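thought: fold this chain, then report.
action: predict
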Amino acid sequence: MAYFSREGQDGYDLIEWIASQTWSNGRIGMRGSSYTGTNQWFIAREQPPHLSCITPSATLGRPMQNVPYFDGAFAVAWAINWIGLALNIKVLIVNQSHPDP
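observation:
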């Protein structure tokens, strides 16, 4: 399954489910950064009727082109770092062509 392939549709369903709950006033807003910020754009594109506002920050500029590929090439270093962050593994890949003296 492609990265970000279902987030918009899943988000639409979630927004409408929240709006249908007795504890909801039906006006749904979203906030977040990075992955959760980028998801807001995909969800808003689906136009859920009860989505009132989004406040994305630090989102991906071209998520369908740049994650996890950069101009068509698989980004191994990015993927390893992301997996490490997602699994809370303390790993940092440093790309240094010239070591610091």
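thought: worth noting. Strands lie at 28-33, 51-57, 69-70, 73-74.
final: tokens above.
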